[in-house]
Amino acid sequence: MHKITIHSSATPPTMNITARDIRQWHKARGWSDIGYHWIITRDGKLEAGRPMTKAGAHVKGHNTNNIGICLVGGTSPSGKPENNFTNPQWQTLQSSITLLSTIYNITPTKVYGHKDLNPNTACPSFNVKAWLNTHF
């Protein structure tokens, strides 16, 4: 693995979905499995998604050697992009990036938001590079 990409589930903060829900959505689209490797629920729980031994399906054209982490939330009740993640989610994201970066020797310059690799999306509803600058 060479990079990490952060995503949001594009769901309102009242919708506390899990990896199981996202897996069902992705399979309903005809995918073989959930697209993300890791999901962070609203309460900060880290849930396994796609096995790390398999390429993700989370950034078209950038999935090879790219770990996908999805934060549950990211939109307002009306569906607009919104940074509405919880403190437990931020804590789990930071510890997950620290661990994965250590295991795979990934520098902070190789951690992206989905919109950094695909400017046609607002995902993950916050500036990952700015967040990294204050946390790493």
From TrEMBL:
Source superkingdom: Bacteria
Molecular functions (GO terms): N-acetylmuramoyl-L-alanine amidase activity; zinc ion binding
Peptidoglycan recognition protein family domain span: 1-118
One GO BP: peptidoglycan catabolic process
Pfam families documented for this protein: Amidase_2
Family: Belongs to the N-acetylmuramoyl-L-alanine amidase 2 family.
Record's protein name: Lysozyme
